[in-house]
Give the backbone structure.
Amino acid sequence: MNELMQSLKNYIDDVQKLLPTTKTLTFAESERRAGEFLNAMAYLTDAKHTLNQDKIKLMSVQTAVYAELLANGNLKTVTENKVQAEAAPSYMTAREDYENVENDISYLKTYYDIFNNAHIFYRNMAKGENA
């Protein structure tokens, strides 16, 4: 796991601690939590942007490695060269790197959705107590 994702997972773990409601919360605490989740959503959005930029670069690398392997293929048919290229360690590594970034983006999107729901929940709690 890269340094960015480890940092994000640590951040998510910290924010997740605000999810449980084992007691009645004050208006001020509900507002604070709503704000914390809104801040977390902004933080995750920025991280997703960074990872999407990485994804673009990794797709280019994957494509370049594959094209080079195909160009250097010396088997009889295109299909055989494709199979050989896809089995090459350099292509497998490039593909895994790309798929890992896709997985990380999906992970952040899931937590973004959770934090969005938590923000709405706590915001509504604060409004309900203030009404």
